[in-house]
Design goal:
By secondary structure, this protein is mostly helical. It has a domain at 30-80. It is 71% helix and 0% strand. The protein is built from four helices and no strands. α1 (2-17) packs across α3.
């Protein structure tokens, strides 16, 4: 079970991180804001360090579960 979860999370990380461009590619944002957002999201660090932060967020801080709960609540509210 843990191996399957590790593989699925690794694939999810790689798919998002290896896409061209940045999550913050918006011509309306000033460069300073983009750099601050990348610093906060650790996108200015090497890929292996980003991978470590990703797993730390998923398992230690349980951000993945919080994200799924928010997504589920938003879906429920939009259907009502």
């Amino acid at each position: 079970m843990f191996i399957t979860l590790f593989i699925i999370l690794s694939i999810a990380f790689m798919v998002v991180r290896l896409m061209p461009g940045s999550m913050y590619d918006n011509p309306e944002l000033p460069i300073e804001v983009i750099q601050a957002l990348e610093e906060k999201s650790h996108l200015n660090k090497p890929m292996i360090v980003q991978y470590g932060y990703f797993f730390k967020g998923c398992f230690i801080r349980k951000q993945l579960g919080e994200y799924l709960l928010k997504l589920n609540q938003e879906c429920l509210h939009s259907k009502l």
